[in-house]
From TrEMBL:
Domain of life (superkingdom): Bacteria
GO biological process terms, semicolon-separated: methylation
Cited CDD domains: AdoMet_MTases
Organism: Streptomyces gardneri
SUPFAM superfamilies recorded: S-adenosyl-L-methionine-dependent methyltransferases (SSF53335)
Domain Methyltransferase type: 50-150
Any one GO MF annotation of this record: S-adenosylmethionine-dependent methyltransferase activity
Official protein name in the record: Methyltransferase
Keywords: Methyltransferase, S-adenosyl-L-methionine, Transferase
Short name of one Pfam family: Methyltransf_11
Length: 263
């Protein structure tokens, strides 16, 4: 990817989506997900994709633009409204490939038959789930044989990193001994650990196939920080993408992106 007035890789995100930190998260996850999809499916195959807890639909719309049929499931009415507003601005051919449903990721059995999807996304959802193992088991049942489960969680092994790099030594010390953190909205939620999730995925017949780190270098920047010039953003994305697949950097990333494959 080369620098220019607008980066093609980033231009597909909704206008005003968020600051640099959110942009890095969405773009790096998109590249990692595309890598896994292209490795499993023929180029041009239209996949059936479920985005459980889709937020405002950033990844769902991107995948629909790529030609896939996407179902978005979201329990928050405001986020669902934002997704519908974004969808309304898309061409008719894209709109007809997207179905948006108000509902919880735990309710997949109510809405869909087992094996209904080739790819299931669960990004930034598990930390809020009271029964995460049951949620993941339900999502795995939605996958067709050989289907891909894409899971993004907060990295419980790196909770000391953000406060430590900010010079908050009390926060850093606390981060070593907990799996709980405070999200950007001030809500206390749970982080997850790679080993535990590896065992969980094996237990629900969607064993871990690949995993990445997300936001190795940029997790500590303020949420409101805007995007740099295109060439600088290009270099930053390249560094984050490489760190997310390289030891030991990926192990201290703020987020983990795990990809399981349904047996």
């Amino acid at each position: 990817m080369t620098g220019g007035a607008v980066l093609p890789a980033v231009a597909h995100w909704p206008a005003g989506y968020g600051g640099l930190r959110d942009t890095i998260r969405q773009e790096v996850i998109a590249r990692q997900l595309d890598e896994q999809i292209s490795a499993r499916y023929p180029v041009g195959q239209r996949l059936r994709i479920l985005d459980a807890g889709m937020g405002q639909g950033t990844q769902a719309l991107r995948l629909a633009r790529a030609g896939h049929t996407v179902t978005g499931l979201e329990a928050d009415p405001e986020l669902l409204k934002a997704a519908r507003e974004s969808l309304a601005t898309e061409p008719a051919g894209i709109r007809e490939r997207v179905r948006l449903i108000e509902g919880d990721g735990r309710e997949t059995g109510v809405h869909f038959l087992p094996g209904s999807f080739d790819v299931v996304l669960c990004h930034g959802v598990l930390m809020y789930a009271d029964e995460p193992d049951a949620l993941l088991a339900g999502l795995a049942r939605m996958l067709a044989p050989g289907g891909l489960l894409s899971l993004v969680v907060r990295n419980g092994e790196a909770l000391a990193m953000r406060p430590g790099l900010a010079g908050d030594w009390s926060g850093a010390l606390a981060g070593f001994d907990t799996d709980v953190y405070t999200d950007d909205n001030g809500v206390k939620v749970r982080a997850d650990r790679l080993d535990a999730l590896t065992s969980t995925l094996a237990g629900i017949a969607a064993p871990l196939h690949a995993w990445y780190g997300v936001r190795v270098f940029t997790d500590g920047i303020p949420a409101e920080t805007g995007l740099p010039a295109a060439e600088e953003l290009d270099r930053l994305l390249a560094a984050e993408e490489r760190a997310g697949r390289t030891e030991p950097y990926r192990r201290i990333a703020a987020l983990l992106h795990l990809c399981g494959v349904r047996g």
